[in-house]
Amino acid sequence: MNNKFIPILSVFMTISLVVFVSLQFYWLKEYYASLEQEFSNKVHVALENSAQKISEIEVSKYNEKFKNFDKTLAANAKKPTLFTVQQTQDSLTKTTLAFGKTIIEKQDIQISPKGDSLTKFRLLKDEGIYSFKKTPTAPQIITSAQSQDISSGIFSLTEFAKFNATNLPINQRVNKKVLDSILSRELKTQGIDSKFGYGILDKNNKLTAINNNTFLDQKDKKNYTYPLFTDNDDKTLFSLSLVFPRKDASLVKNNLPMLLGTFMSLLTILGIYIISINYMMRQKKISEVKTDFINNMSHEFKTPLATISVATDSLNNDKIATNPEKVKYYSKLIKQENLRMKKQVENVLNMSKLERNEMKLFLKETNVRELIKEISKSFRLIVEERNGTLSEEFRAEHYLVKVDEFHLSNALINLLDNANKYSPDTPEIKISTKNEGNWYVIQISDKGMGMEQQNKVKIFEKFFREETGNIHNVKGQGLGLSYVKKIIEMHKGQVIVESEKGKGSTFTLKLPMI
Questions:
Q1: Nearest one of 63, 39, 55, 59 to 182, comparing CA atoms
Q2: Taking every annotated instance into account, which residue ranges of this chain make up the domain Histidine kinase (predicted)?
Q3: 69: helix, coil or strand?
């Protein structure tokens, strides 16, 4: 992918993601609003049914008190004259008087000499209900419709109970336990099993004594109300109110599969977006690093090739060709530069094999102490050319370890080479060993330039090289540490780095001894 298209593609993907996420959140908002509406409808039905059942319970109480009242009226409906009175007195010393009076006057009217006559009935009626309390109040008379029901003998005590109970306090009309039971049953019938609080409000919207603790704690939250009792003019006397402190949790619980599906799809899209952006950024970075790698390789090959070219031209010179010492010197120089290029090519090929898992280790029990001594002896010459020092400290008592001698040697040489290259002044390098449990530990320390903390992990990435201002001021391909890490991991070991900018670095290799 061309690097110049990556920022454009990233912007396009970001805009698409923002639009998609916005639509998802809008859909969730609308979906939640519809769930709330459905919940409100169910609560309304439950409240309506509960209010109706409470009213029916109240009427049934009056049926028990006045069970002979309507039966007497029905049984005597055809009698010429009927007068009934029913009186009761409740706990508040209020007297209720119900009466009914019906007079049927029969008249026979002669309409012809032959004896034909017309029978005429005249109906006289009077009825009413009066309530008397200690406090002077105006008596209430039942309506004409109620009078017709009473006089026709089909009167139900519903209206009478409604009329009579109007003056009763709410705690005598509603039982808290009964109300709680009815509400629980009706809500469950509607599929609502969330915790609820209930309370009865008077016509001034003030809370009465009929409530529970949940309602008191959550009364400031959104509540659902429905008329509970009305007077003869159908004006609301009391309202039944419900609150649901865990409504949101209940809605989520009841619609969990749908919401989980939506959130999972949203997270999937976000994950794909993050992975895609990360992949593109990595590709861009790899492309840049590869470009730097090619530039470095070109520079690394350019120097030995130039040296070889000069040495070859010199050997063709008759004066040098006849001088054995000069011929030997230039031949050695050509061989040295050739080996240098070969080593660089082998590093690249080895990393390629490691990436494809094609490299195999040939493990054998090795005296690692002697191996380190041999490497140190050869590398000390390079350090001493810069007037540096390479010291050793062998503290490991057990040093026979199964390793691949060739690859472990290359890994150690890479670390020593880095310690030397990244020591801008006189190198001070130290190799130490020790036993730590079942590990054979090798530490290579320097007092060089060190590195930034954020680069301690990145240095093991292929092609990575810490910026030092000039890309060629420290030569290399950025493959050495990546190779070291993979070789040690293939030995089932560990690589640990400790470094501080300006104070140097310490690389610790841990190799298993079993």
A1: 55
A2: 296-514
A3: helix
Neighbouring C-alpha atoms within 13 Å toward the C-beta of 246: 10
Residue 69's CB is within 10 A of a number of other CB atoms, namely 20
* pTM (2 d.p.): 0.42
List, in sequence order, every residue forming a beta bridge with 315; answer none if it has no partner. none
Return the DSSP state at 356: T
Mean pLDDT along residues 188-205: 88
Residue 137 in this model has a pLDDT that exceeds 50: no
Q: Which residue has the tokens 């007497």?
A: 72
The tens digit of pLDDT for each residue in 254-288 reads: 777 777 777 788 888 888 888 888 888 877 777 77
Token pair 């040489």 is found at: 413
Q: Rounded to 5, what percent of the chain is helix, strand, coil?
A: 50, 20, 25
Alpha-carbon distance 197 to 117, whole Å?
71
**Angle ∠(382,388,390) on CA atoms, nearest 5:** 75
Residue that the structure tokens 């949101």 belong to: 248
User: What tokens does 26 get?
Assistant: 């809008």
Is residue 77 left, alpha or beta, with left meaning phi > 0 and alpha meaning psi from -120 to 50? alpha
Contact 406, 366 (CB under 8 A): no
